[in-house]
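Entry 14. Structure prediction run on the chain below.
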Amino acid sequence: MSEAKALGVNAQYNVARPDSLPVRIAGYQRRRMFERFVKATGLTEVDTVVDVGATSDRSYDHSNYLEAWHPHKHRVTAVGVDDASFLETVYPGMRFVQADGRDLPFDDGAFDWAHSSAVLEHVGSAQKQAKFLSELWRVSRKGIFVTTPNRWFPVEFHTTLPLVHWLPASVHRPIFRALGRAFFAEEANLNLMSPGSLAKAARAAGIPNFRVESVSLGGWPTNLLLVARKADQ
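Output returned:
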């Protein structure tokens, strides 16, 4: 049994039950983010997409939302560190590649668009987050679309704890441990981002002319969106 499973954390890096309010809210927001992805990219039926961060989790119906909702499955390559090869069966024509998003096994410009949702906060340090973004940028021909939770939303959706994550990491991580959320106290498992730190990571990744946007709930941004196009697109 992995550390995550032993601590009650699913493959979505989440402790919330499938029927819980946080999960229902997440599903609603992910539908909105998918719509923003389609609009921001002007996605066409011939565009190829690599979705980096496919999960083996099947407890949430929106766990792999791009794979579920993209109408042209044969144009999608799903990538993840855990085995999500079931996607090839569930969605005929789709391809799954097991790989680390910080070291993608694809040529430069192999896909029109690189997409990643709710993964960047789980890849580790600021340097590793920048490396992850640089790999998405490298393998895309037209651009990237990346989502990550907003650190400044009052409820932390992975732990379901309110406000604690607003404290400095040196303070909130010991509190996570004390409250039975030790898995999320490790930077390698959860490193939440603000608009400023997301922009800093994009600059460190060598991505020019990006935009940091958001989707909100009740007027409060729940998720940040990093949108960037290649100059010739």
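The two ends are 46 Å apart (CA to CA).
Filed with the rest of this week's runs.
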